[in-house]
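[audit] Reproducing an earlier prediction to check determinism. Same input, same settings, fresh worker. If the tokens differ from the archived copy the diff job will pick it up downstream; this log only records the rerun itself.
[audit] input (283 residues):
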Amino acid sequence: MTRILKGAEVVEALNARIAAEVEELNAAGVVPTLAIVRVGERGDDISYERGAGKRAEKVGVAVRNVLLPAEVSEDALVSQIEALNADASVHGVLLFRPLPVRINEERVRNVLASAKDVDGITDLSLAGVFAGTQTGFAPCTPAACVEILEHFGYRLEGKNAVVVGRSLVVGKPVAMMLLGRNATVTLAHSRTADLKQVVAAADIVIAAVGRAEMLNGDYLSEGQVVIDVGINVTEQGALVGDVDFAHAEGTVAAITPVPGGVGTVTTSVLMKQVVQAARRSVV
């Protein structure tokens, strides 16, 4: 029988730990604070901002919303981020992307101090993930994948893990995080030769290719633990992952659902990293 790795269970345990750490910091006179920088009125940004605010309130993290008009200049946005870098009362900064096309996103994101980069968007933070150091933070989605595996007790050391997808947002960072936990990692993608056989031979599969239900029964085998990062909308309007759940259930040992899996955990990971940033600021 396939075990369904529901994000809600991970979130409950993670939130309890975060709230306890916040209490300790509050006792020392520190209020972990997240600044959310939003440019314009994108609906998905507003929705995530609302959800992050609710999650933050639940664990005791303060939120400062920095709302800028869509026509804000690049220099003004850079100045705003520099001001947040210099503000000792702000421990983490979340910058919504994509930015308007006229803005040089690479320049803007790399202005952010890595110590406050709680969603791992700067080059320094990514370098820290690859080097295995505490320079900045890992992107929240890869960190959520690892959080789920560890919460449910899946040992990574010595396991054969395949990551399908090579983006800097998920695929490459999560591969490095698994490698750092002594898994043997294959970073695969849509052009990998014999991809079906490569995936089927894995103990752990991280699906982050961005194609609806691409990994069907031909890719899967008994005993696998599957983390499905994909969020895709079908022509019928259904929300599905990168794994064909109907074929996976009953075959693999465990799988995260979509929705209700990795995406549920990412916001709590964000709060965890804000609290870690706050703790580092007072050490």
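[audit] rerun output stored. Observation attached for the diff report: Residues 140-263 form a domain with the Rossmann fold fold (CATH 3.40.50.720).
[audit] end
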